[in-house]
Amino acid sequence: MEDFLVTLMAWFIHLDAHLLELINAHGDWVYLILFLVIFIETGVIIMPFLPGDSLLFIAGALAAKGLLDPLTLCVLLFIAAVSGDALNFTIGAWFKRRALDTSKIPFVKAEHIAHTQKFFTTHGGKTIILARFVPIVRTLAPFVAALGAMPRKVFFTYNVTGAFLWIGSLVAAGYLFGNIPWISRNLTAVVLGIVVLSILPAVAGWLRSRRTA
């Protein structure tokens, strides 16, 4: 049973690589699967390792091939991203009201919380928008915003704006460029490039903090 769960989690984490298989096997049910992945990655603080950026890019590329409807894809994933962040913010507010120790949250490293707090110190409220493009910070930002007592209405504005830019830009990039022959032949390298570009802001921020420490 343990081996099965490990295999299932590994498959889930690398869902981007199996997306075409899912479409062929389950048809329109793949929209629900994609919705759940984006919702869980943005809404569940202990699941920051799901393949958000690469999944959106590949979904856009498959939409360009006619395997997914681009409008349906964008609308559903936008709703998933907004509602996921809203859930995450609500959980953070719950922790704040009860003055709970965030360092004891399973699978969440205290340094990741601290790094996200520094991200807020540097970028202010627009962190909610910028964090959409930074793995791990993307998942922690709404939670930390609630801990910092960001007003819910202010958070909602940033949440909707960030979700629109994140979903729209990566799905559009996959739709426009994902099926260019060179990119299709080197999709793994492209996806890795997306991941590297996504984490560059976090790395740059960490380097700056090291220099000023």
Automatic annotation (TrEMBL):
> Where does the record place the VTT domain?
50-175
Q: Which InterPro entries match?
A: DedA-like, VTT_dom
The UniProt entry lists membrane topology as: Multi-pass membrane protein
Task: Provide an example Pfam family for this protein.
Answer: VTT_dom
Keywords in alphabetical order, please: Cell membrane, Membrane, Transmembrane, Transmembrane helix
Q: At the top level of its lineage, which domain of life is listed?
A: Bacteria
Q: Which residues cross the membrane?
A: 29-50, 71-95, 129-149, 156-177, 189-207
Name its cellular compartments: Cell membrane
Q: Family assignment?
A: Belongs to the DedA family.
Q: What is this protein called?
A: VTT domain-containing protein
Species of origin reads Duganella levis
Highest lineage ranks of the organism?
Answer: Bacteria, Pseudomonadati, Pseudomonadota, Betaproteobacteria, Burkholderiales
